[in-house]
Amino acid sequence: MGITMKKILAIFVVAALSIATPAIAASKATTVDGCKARTATAHNPATVKEPASVSKSLPKTMTITTNCGPIVISLLTNKAPLTITKLSALARAKYFDKSICHRLTTQGIFVLQCGDPSASGSGTPTGWKGYKDENLPTDGKNIYPAGTVAMANSGPGTNGSQFFLVYKDSTLSPNYTVWGKITKGLDLLNKIGTVGAYTINSTDNKAYYAADGYPIQPIDIVKVTVK
Fold first, then answer.
1. How many C-alpha atoms does 45 have within 13 Å on its Cβ side?
2. What is this structure's pTM?
3. What are the structural domain ranges in the chain?
4. What is the CATH number of domain 17-49+57-226?
5. Which one, out of 94, 113, 195, 213, has a CA that is 20 to 30 A from the CA of 168?
6. CA within 13 Å, CB half, 18
7. pLDDT for 68-115, tens place per residue?
8. SS3 per-residue string spanning 59-89
């Protein structure tokens, strides 16, 4: 299963989370200790000038400050310079600030997906064209190991602003630019994964546990900085 820009319902409250086996629901945590309440809202992606070429001076680290704590990423500047140029421009323009991480997978592949201010799974920087892939892994098992940070896309050359954070070893098609390695916050991501994900059933409009859906513990990006 690939990490594509998947559009899902923009509902972010799990006040009445349901599950087929209520006994499990009653004993399962729905929050991660230390997380603050949600303050971000879905909004239209901002207009940011797209860099036309690779920057001559690239940052070495990115820090994603979330409502649950920081996630620090070591940037692979030598292997994905174009990607890091684009993402750095977005970070410096505060494109990611006050946005929602809209997707969590907890079975088969283990990722938290962020970078879409619209929280629809299809948002991308206004006016940008998709840019080329870089540093694609060799096909095989666990080619996206725990701690990997990679771009989400909807096919070759469609990169924009969405990315995913791998919190357990995952095997995907080798189609997603790898541009960073998590050096702090992997334990936090595992806690988020343990709490799980949910979807909204269109028949009864209730929330149910799911292997692929919204994070039950709401995850806001407060700000993103690079240096």
1. 22
2. 0.90
3. 17-49+57-226
4. 2.40.100.10
5. 94
6. 7
7. 999 999 999 999 999 999 999 999 999 999 999 999 999 999 999 999
8. CCEEEEEECCEEEEEEECCCCCHHHHHHHHH
